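Priority: low. Protein: Methyltransferase. Input follows.
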Amino acid sequence: MTALDASTEPAPFGDLLIHWDRRVLQPRMWTTAQSYWAAALAPHCPDGPILELFCGAGQIGLLAASLTGRALVQVDQDPVAGSFAQRNAAAAGLPSDVRVGSVTEALEPDERFGLIVIDPPWVPSADVEQFPDDPVLAIDGGLDGSDKVVLGLGVALRHLHPEGHAIVQVGHAAQTELVQALLKGLGGDQLPWTVREVRDYSPGGLLVHVGPESTSAS
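Result:
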């Protein structure tokens, strides 16, 4: 069975309708905030496509793309999620290059993006059973929930334009502190980016804006 064989009632997500089923993470309405924030930053970002890592059914990146008119590159390791992302892009009439595979292998070394959204699984492995309706692959972030946050941010920083911006979704305040620590630990004072703002959407999660040290964008 493919994702196209198992579609359910489309879920509203901003102005889009997103096809999904229980093999992928159900679209959460609070995460439209990630799309809207990315769209607000887009005028301050270098030209080019948006990159979305851990895209799932594709809704967050697709809404950002629809709001900005930018093309999109989406990555997820789950073939079912990739099928839905492709279907949802086609249904919305939006150009998206959906790549199925590890986020560490899906991009060419020289690819650079001015705007990146990162939607990693961030639930601790011991807690995934609290969410029986969600597929484990889509929410399991490892021992303390931070494995994919670390992985995604590392990939993003290798492909983020020096004047680019990224919006990272995390689960709790300690993971926002981890993002800041990673920015310092990966590059010391050499990296051009810092955590510019954190927005709390509890009980859903938090969004972290990583951007250049000196800019008026927020």
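The chain has one domain: 30-212. The helical segments are 32-41, 59-68, 79-92, 136-139, 147-159, 173-187.
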